[in-house]
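Model it.
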Amino acid sequence: MVSLAHQARAVRSLTSTLLRATLVGATTAGMGLLARAAWGIPTARGASPAMLQRAANGSPRYVDGAFRNTLPPTEVTPVSMAAILTAVLTRGELGTPSGVVPLRIPRFPTVADELAVTWYGHSSALIEIDGRRVLVDPVWSDRVSPSSVLGPKRLHPVPTSLDALPPVDAVLISHDHYDHLDLPTIRALVARGSAPFLVPLGVGAHLRSWGVPEDRIVELDWGGQAKVRELTLTCTEARHFSGRWLTRNTTLWASWVIAGPQHGVFFGGDTGYTPAFAEIGARYGPFNLTLLPVGAYHDQWPDVHMTPEEAVRAHGDLGGGVLMPVHWATFNLAFHGWADPIRRLVAAAERSDARFAVPMPGERFSAGSPPDRDWWSAIA
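Modeled.
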């Protein structure tokens, strides 16, 4: 007969063995998850600091090792930091839709339209202007992060694959944040076409580190221009910041003017409100179409994101015809409701008699006949 003491020792031994096995398994699983989360991060971060500095030197906007906005930065106070922290801790499911975001599958003519646009979600859009096609801030990845496991995840699928895109004449990048500059998408575009990549200063270093051919990179400072077929593409001012890791402002951020023989389009990229919009409108406008960011705003960061009301104001400064809002609906990046940007945009646009169009992700429309349905309220 086995003694109670022996049984107790056996139970303790078995418990210890199971605990060690559990810990080893958990550690192995954790290490596996960590490895998956970290996979590709060094490459996705982009160029080294030395490469970025070489590209930045000589720009009047590059001061003391960093690019600067024209306007002085907003002061960050303990009160403002507390407000942001409170918003983070109380956000919950705020910023996500209550239902499925509807999608459209665009159909393209053989020859690009005189003026049309297809929105793929967030800031990714295909602009047709005077028979040419320009792709802006293309992001097809599931997450906007250096990791494929961690980071903001899509709230809706990409409407179509990159292979379904028609041939494009140019790709414009506004800045190097992950929700605007996406490594897998860039590599796919390099493989499937020959279009040049037009980028602000320093962003070209990221592209070079990812194997984009030098002859397909056009790197510009604010005010710089490049010709692509019949189009004139101008790098213009924005109010934002940059960075793909712990360092900030080692590359420039920008908006873009797309001018064809007959039409003009303004792409705001990602920006806070700035008086520079009026200067851009006076010099390069008016514009038949503006694509302006309306989401991820907060009272504490006017330097980086406009409110919807400011987007309507910027549209007026630019002499815009039709305003199409971008930088909303696809990724939860702030502390407001999912449809709040569009509700506020519609109200502000109606007060100002501004024309606007809010397409579904994947929807293509002509600037002469913008969609006017409300598809967002049902899932807000």
